[in-house]
Amino acid sequence: MRDFASSSATTTSLLKKKLVRRSLSVTVIGFFLFLYVDQLQKTEKYAWMRRMTFRVPKSHEKRNHLPVGGTPKNHEDYDDIIIPREDDDDEVGNNGRWEDRSSDRKKYVPPLGELRFDDDDVERTTTRSEEEENVPPLPDFPPPPNVSPPPVTAEMERKFHSQSKVRVDKMSFPNAPDELIEVVNRMGLHRGSAVVVSFANSHHIELAVNFILWAKAIGMTTLIGALDDDAFEILKKTVGDESHGGEGQAFTYRVDHHLEAQGSSHASKAWKNFAKMRISHATSLLEFGFDVVMSDADVVWLKNPEEYLKCEKVSEDGKVVENLSFDIDGCEELKAADVIVSSDNLSPTSDERDGGNYAKGGVFNTGIVFLRHTKGGIQWAKQWNLHLSATDGRFHRLTSDQQVFNAMSRKENAWPGLEVMRMDGTRTLGPKENKRVLVAAEGDTLLGVFPVAKFNPGHVYMVQKFHEKEKKTPFAVHATYTFDGSSGDAKKWRFMEAGLWRVPEEEREEKFITFDASAHLWDDDAVDDHGAISSHDTPSITDHLVAGSGHIKALANAMAVAASLKRTLLIPPMPCWCDKVWGGHDNIFTFQCHYPGSRDSNHIPGTCPLDHFVSPSKLAREAKVNGVNIKPLGAAPESVKIMRGEFPTLKVGGGKEEEQQHGASSFAIPTHATELEISKLSNRLPLVIKLETTRDAFGGFTDRAKTKQFEHSINDIGLFPEQWCSECHPQGCKNLIPAATIAKGVLKPVREVHDQFCASFDKAGKFDDSHDDHIDDKEDTTNNNDNARI
């Protein structure tokens, strides 16, 4: 204890000594610092330090405390602060400490924050009160008018937002698919941009590739979702580099959805699930701030529709160009619509004349649907998706998204069930009114219908050829009204026929042969072969059946000659005298053999697609099996198209005597020519050759087994005639069709109220085998071996 107490006393003494030393050190340092500053103040450079004055705050009961680190908000709350002079010691008090000065002192009070010097050579500035006295009074102005700023309209807000690029985060849109958010952020588009959206799986991948290639060619902003991994890999290669983003680009993303091969049937449950998925993705894009064009992959876009849909000009940086006093292709007719849909109507003339009053009587086709990111547009998309999921009621029994869309548009149990929007409330439309805008039954949505002349159904573009007559290019062509099913191959053939196929083929050396598609109908032997055409320019089912039978036999001969020359057969458009209807469930005779609704186009007689006679997809498969390559003339390469049909001619005729006398010339073959005779010309013919006629052009292959195989595969299966049917109500078929023509087909009762006429074209049959012995003689002479074959 004693040792501990002694140690504590010693420690305390040491601490005290240290503190004293440190205090002395600080005092000395401070003293010398004071002397240094005092000496500085005596110099001319720093003399201002002695002459500086500030303001003193008022007494505690009057002043507001100065905020820490800030400045007083009201300068009047502070009196002047004065540094005391040597002759003011009696006023300072308490040895020079700061004192509060009352505001009634006579002494000069400088304003807040001003520096003043006591030197005589410095001029004193006037005080605030003196300045106020010298200011002349302001004149009496009238009170300002009560003018409020103009209201912010939806148009002004849209223009403002259109100048900013969209960035989406998951927290703001929790229901949006992650993959969609990722690709939207990658796209880097401005708010309000129009995005064309489509989807594809590997079963329809060629259509999707063609869709993208056209979109890229016209600079259309496109987003296409891949429904399986194989499709995604192909689409990524087709889209190309996405890194630069922006408008006018194509983008793809993998969708977490699988559509089975049989799911393309619009009546299947799989299609309904797919439809709900694509509508939900479109809804998310609307909520992100985009306008959305929902497009099927079997649509070809020939012109960028964005300016037409927005009805405004847009600069390269996405900003809206002012002065919207122009009308882009009649876009003012649709500018008020929240939703715009394409139509299955077939009369561009009636559609142009009557607008919405014509459109409301037809079926709306959801292959092309435009949705604005307006309240009405977003609400329509949500309701559309909701009705597709209905488990009872009006929408439950409907099998496709298109049926639901049409039902939403119209009042229940009424036709057409919707009316044209009238801007002035009257029943007479003005010249500039939105005559293409309808008031939909579902809510208050304004529904527009695309003009048929600008958004063509397949029939308008590929059968009527309206664009050729009017010399106008539509915005889009939808491959509808096909008769070879809804497969990708069927749609592909139609696009190829129309010259709308951009998908490149494998590069290879290729030579071509084509034929005159009408020569076999008019030559001297036509009557004996398949009958005679009674009229060039009058629609007739009788002439159509005759022509179809002749086309099928002509195709068989042309394909055999092409196989012998190892050339690609370019199939030309086929003349026709009657249109074709789906399933025969319309009375085509009432419209003079025109598809119902297309009578005013006068396209019959004309040329018809190949699927009006045979199945092109089936024919292409059988041709491939037999080593024959076929394609429509419209899909020929540019080197052929530039010849504009002016092809060298390969004549057919002569017979044995002429052949023995002259031999097979470089541009002629004998009638019923054999494979050996035709093949001798192979290397001497030009790039493209056209058969003068197909009648009696082919007599058989060198190998009889090959002939039988070709006849079975091509003539019997590939060229199997498609049945042609039409109802005859209310007149009855016997009152519309000649008795001789009825004898070629059959009459069937339909729906217990009227009858239906159905007939088939004649089959191609077999090749003329009268020269079989002649073929064998040539083989013996040439090869000295019965088993030798070429």
Automatic annotation (TrEMBL):
In this chain, composition skew of type Basic and acidic residues spans: 97-107, 769-781
Q: Which residues cross the membrane?
A: 20-37
Task: Spell out the InterPro entries in the cross-references.
Answer: Glycosyltransferase_77 (IPR053250), Nucl-diP-sugar_transferase (IPR005069)
Positions of the Nucleotide-diphospho-sugar transferase domain: 222-486
| Stretches for region Disordered | 60-79, 84-153, 769-790
Q: Does the keyword Membrane apply?
A: yes
Q: Which GO terms describe its biological process?
A: cell wall pectin biosynthetic process
Signal peptide: which range, if any? none
Looking up Pfam families in the UniProt record yields: Nucleotid_trans
What domain of life is recorded for the organism? Eukaryota
Q: Which UniProt keywords apply?
A: Membrane, Transmembrane, Transmembrane helix
List the record's Gene Ontology CC terms alphabetically.
Golgi apparatus
GO molecular function terms noted in the UniProt entry:
arabinosyltransferase activity
Q: Biased composition, Pro residues: where in the chain?
A: 136-152
**PANTHER family named among the record's database cross-references:** ARABINOSYLTRANSFERASE XEG113 (PTHR46936:SF1)
Q: What is this protein called?
A: Glycosyltransferase family 77 protein
